[in-house]
Amino acid sequence: MDVIESNLTPLEHYQAVRSQIEHEDNLVSQRLSWFLASQAFLFTAYAISLNGPTPLHFQNLEAQAKLLMVLLPVLALSSAFLIWVSVLAGLWAMRTLRIVFERSAGKLPAQLPSVQTTGRALLAGQLGPVFIPPMFIAVWLILLLRT
What we know:
Layout: H1 2-6, H2 10-51, H3 59-104, H4 119-146
Helix pairs in contact: 2-3, 3-4
């Protein structure tokens, strides 16, 4: 990366890093959308399984419903954990890009915005992606343990 950076003007370096941060930010947003969509689907499936009628003459169906009541939370926990890790990886990548850029930034025009939002705005913006998955993980664990 140092070889490439040495050939870039400070403005080109800024644009390249900012572009990569925007890309990572978009990936985090997509991952959070996948997460919320999958959790909504799995909660709906869980609720239907919980409230669905089980006729007495279909005893095999009852056994499958009980199995589903365990498998749905396990699937939800697994997907929540994996997506949460990928969100954290994206946030880490953006942080690393920002730190590396700040250490190596040359003279940039004063009218350019910072390469990424910082401070309280950054913290507030990352609260959702960081804390929504573990909240769902906690709910699914409670449901799984009470099944």
